[in-house]
Amino acid sequence: MVLVLLGGAISRGLLTGLTWQEILVAVLFLLVIRPAAAWVSLARGRTGPWERGVLSFFGVRGIGSIYYLGYALSKGEFDAEEASLWRIVALVICMSIVLHGMTAAPVINALDRARERKAVRVSGDEGQAPKTPI
User: Which of 23, 45, 47, 90 is the most buried (most CB within 10 A)?
Assistant: First the structure.
């Protein structure tokens, strides 16, 4: 439902007035800031570096940003930046949907194949793949 409402807001002009600086911030959030934060948060886990990278790239993001921004705007003084913040969040969500929608299946399939190869190499049993960190 929230995605439908976001699509409606975008079609009614939410992204009107988008600047190159806002696009740059959205790209940095999508490709650098959130993946780096996720990578650090997973550093002490049992995942291998490949899995950590995939989780960092595809990790939790998107719709929660709408709630967080709405809450922040209701509690703080962001009058001059409010429209810009909404444009950035909407753009990040849209770019995330497109980018992750196009790359999820191929990346996960490659990760699964690599995990199976390592399981066979390490234990001789392909059935160990789900428990094999890579």
Answer: 90
The verdict on pTM exceeding 0.90 is no
With a CB cutoff of 8 Å and minimum separation 6, the contacts of 20 are: none
Amino acid sitting at position 82:
E
Between 46-50, 73-77, 85-89, 110-114, the lowest mean confidence (pLDDT) is in 46-50
| C-alpha to C-alpha distance for 34 and 59, rounded to whole angstroms | 8
75: left (phi over 0), alpha (psi -120 to 50) or beta: alpha
- Smallest Cα–Cα separation from 133: which of 17, 41, 52, 24? 52
Angstrom CA distances, 26 to 48, 67, 80, stand at: 28, 17, 18
Tokens 């790359």 belong to residue: 103
